[in-house]
Automatic annotation (TrEMBL):
The keyword tRNA processing does not apply. GO terms for molecular function: isomerase activity. Gene3D superfamilies: 3.10.50.40. This is FKBP-type peptidylprolyl isomerase. InterPro entries: EF_Hand_1_Ca_BS (IPR018247), PPIase_dom_sf (IPR046357). The keyword Acyltransferase does not apply. It comes from Flavobacterium macrobrachii. The lineage of its organism: Bacteria, Pseudomonadati, Bacteroidota, Flavobacteriia, Flavobacteriales. It comes from the Bacteria.
Amino acid sequence: MNILSKFLFLTLVVAILFSCDKNDNDTVELRDYQEQYITDLANIEEFMKTHYMTVVNNPGQANDMDVVFTKIPTGGNQVSVWNQTDYPIQTREITVTQNEVDVNYKIYYLKLREGSGVKPCNVDNILAGYRGEYIYKETTTEGTTTTTKVLGKQFEENKSPQTYLSLYGGVIRGWSEIFPQFKTGTYSENLDGTISYNDFGAGVMFLPSGLAYFGSARSSIPAYSPLVFTIKLFELQRADQDGDDIPSYQENVSTSDQGYMYFLPKGEVNPNDSDGDEIPDFLDSDDDNDGFLTRFEIKNLTANPVFTYPFDEIPTCGTSGNGKKRHLDETCHN
């Protein structure tokens, strides 16, 4: 190796070592989830109080239920999102364990139209149109006066979705919390091959960053940004995560929070974990932990041909007397 080559090699090594050392020292520690939520909630409420919205209610047209948010000008008399009564503000409150700490979230949302079809479970797949904005603060100084405004900026829009998205792991947490509050609609194919959607559920959700991307910047979305989504729920596909031939939405045995499946912290009783093995039924191929797979316990093996019972017709176990369907009763086997 000649002298020049050695010099270049040593320079490259030093540069790599210096780069690695610099990155290690520049590692940014994530903010506290609860503290960030308080900041996000204040910004969301300020956005709702300083903006008004225009809703296009035009059934059967491509722009039906489009929403535009506009900053109320100084001295303007427009009714803010916060004070409008056409679409009453609704909330969903949840507790999420993040960094081993329980964080209590309030999600504001507006139900522009509920929809005429069926509601998805929070683990189903959905076909949805949407428009996304992130909320940010802008500070300007004019003379001796400094003004701070809370504004929104669009980062994405998809009016004609072609792909189903999974509410279980395929989208941000806020979507899986709010979409089950809406229903699908109807659709028809036009002569040119396009699809027209009608009577679909439509609304707006205001999400704290902890239920979105939190400290991760995404494309044009800055880290720690609260997000505003205008949504349209066109269609859904029922999911069966554990492949036991029972759609996941039917494995919710809780009567208090229909439409939602959750993992819970270790030690907490999960009503959707029938055998208490800390695996929710919708992910458990043996729901009663009796060594017999659920998909076989719900079959009628005496019929010719053998068939799988519809969920509502799955027999209970007559010998145990506890009234459970037989795939949930460890004392009963097909």
